[in-house]
Amino acid sequence: MPALIFDCDGVLADTEQHGHLPAFNQTFTDFNVPVQWTSEEYAQKVKIGGGKERMRSILTEELAASLGLTNDAAVDQAIRDWHKRKTDIYKGLVESGAMPGRPGIGRIVAEAHDAGWTLAVASTSAEPAVRAVLGHAVGPELAAHFSVFAGDIVPHKKPAPDIYLVALGDLGLQPDDAVVIEDSRNGMLAALAAGLRTVVTVSGYTKEEDFSGASLVVSSLGDPDNGEPTAVLQNPLGLDVPDAVSLAVLQDILDRPAPSAPSTTASTPTEKS
């Protein structure tokens, strides 16, 4: 059977502005780090891959010295401590229900599960955070049917294809067997570089990005029963998407030739928190 592979942040839930950003800022406060990112500043930080890498980006020589981080080992340990605290804060926000699943996530997951599709998440965010978001977005019963590929399990983060190649290998799938749901250009590039067909559901920080190469770009997967139909933003294949991205739409995408990956798939580490 085919597989449906989701990114996490911005796809399962719109986590960046209401989850990761306040968790980063609270962590900086807890460790007496004199940094507080605004929403506008964080819009640039999301282009840096991984929460540890985003934290490391603030450490100028002057700031590191003022915090007593006088060598690489001290910096590395501080980043590990900060990120562990940030993950705990973020999980608390998720468990509070502050970030419900994006429109259509629960619907498409239930539809795919009932049809026997393989379900997976591929994200280089911290695994505990990914599992927390997944459980709240689709419910614990459906979450139990997912394979989760997350954390620092690959050497290069998106837009490198590593995380998707690991997922394909572990699941015993060929690229023609799976469709990916992403929300960012870097995520899309990673999926395309792995030979995967990709649907993009834009999120708050990514809606202005270039999604050339995606099979379909939409505002969300769509939840018309709750008054949240999808808006089709780019439809290069001419797919029939009346008010939601259905399993039939995803199967139609799988039946089409795979798109060529853009030439800009450098393995610069960028991804989610």
Automatic annotation (TrEMBL):
Keyword Hydrolase annotated: yes
A Pfam family that the UniProt record links to this protein: Hydrolase
NCBIfam families named in the record: HAD-SF-IA-v3
PANTHER family: CBBY-LIKE PROTEIN, XYLULOSE-1,5-BISPHOSPHATE (XUBP) PHOSPHATASE
Presence of the UniProt keyword Hydrolase in the record: yes
UniProt xrefs under SUPFAM superfamilies: HAD-like (SSF56784)
Keywords, ordered alphabetically: Hydrolase
GO molecular function list: hydrolase activity
Protein name: HAD family hydrolase
